[in-house]
């Protein structure tokens, strides 16, 4: 399901700045630092953090929701199946070998 462009803009300009207020110190929140592929601009996005540590991410891969499902574990698995999207991004930590 393609989400509307207005929702993406709302998320970028409203939700992300609010999440960044607590994302650096809340127990389950982290901040994903990334650089725009074409613009080269630096971005910071609030994310859920796992195991409370920071990891460098290498080789992010866009894949279908069905391909990504086996990589989702724990309490997120039932929620993942309900989310209305067709694609997901697999982030591999820099210290692990990629598929």
Please summarize what this structure is.
With 99 residues, the chain is α+β, with helices and mostly antiparallel strands. It is 30% helix and 29% strand. Strands 1-2 form a two-stranded antiparallel ribbon. A two-stranded antiparallel ribbon has the order 3-4.
How is the topology of this model organized?
Blueprint: H1 5-23, E1 29-35, E2 42-48, E3 57-64, H2 65-68, H3 76-82, E4 87-93
Antiparallel strand pairs: 1-2, 3-4
Describe the fold and architecture.
With 99 residues, this protein is of the alpha+beta class. The protein has two domains: 1-52, no CATH class; 55-94, no CATH class. The protein is 30% helix and 29% strand. It has three helices and four strands; from the N terminus they run H-E-E-E-H-H-E. Strands 1-2 form a two-stranded antiparallel sheet. It has a two-stranded antiparallel ribbon with strand order 3-4. A hairpin with a 6-residue loop joins strand 1 and strand 2.
Give a quick set of tags describing it.
3 helices, 99 residues, 29% strand
Taking pLDDT < 50 over at least 5 consecutive residues as the criterion, the unreliable ranges are none
Radius of gyration: 14 Å
Q: Give the % helix.
A: 25-40%
Report the end-to-end length measured between terminal Cα atoms. 26 Å
Helical stretch tally = 3
- Overall structural class, as computed from helix and strand content, comes to alpha+beta
Mean of the pLDDT scores?
78
Order of strands, widest sheet: 1-2
User: How many extended strands?
Assistant: 4
Shape: globular
| N-to-C order of helices and strands | HEEEHHE
Supply the number of structural domains: 2
Strand content: 25-35%
Largest sheet: 2 strands, antiparallel
